[in-house]
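RECORD TYPE: protein structure
NAME: SHSP domain-containing protein
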Amino acid sequence: MDIFIGRDPFQSAISQLLSMPDEFESSSNPHARAYMRDAKAMGKTCVDVKELPDSYVFVADMPGLKCGDIKVQVENDNVLTIGGERKREEATDQTKYLRMERPSGKFLRKFTLPSNAKMDGISAACNDGVLTVTVPKIPPPEPNKPKTIEVKVG
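PREDICTED:
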């Protein structure tokens, strides 16, 4: 069974939001701007998914995040969720942003795990801004060996 990594309707909506011009963001009300900022942060959280013989590995870019800002959990027994929040330094009277391109806000990515994922063995580590989540596979069952029955003669 493959991991669902295709674009779902939610991801399509995110793609549309990401393609909207910056002028729309600056002219919208504050709530719309916050929503757009959060949506862009979610859409820009890049994740590679690899399948190895004994595990699935999710590698996500998390630049500038502390381990406490990242949440990895399993929902509904088979959905791996990677989320958190990228916080932006608040502007002061002394600071004036001329351009803000680094994404900030809440982010969330979900992946449906296959039936052979071993949920109780999931591990996560963050190193140099890269989160690696390893989901071990349940080993396949041993093939049934034919049972030999000794036939007694006589």
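COMMENT: The chain has one domain: 9-87+103-136.
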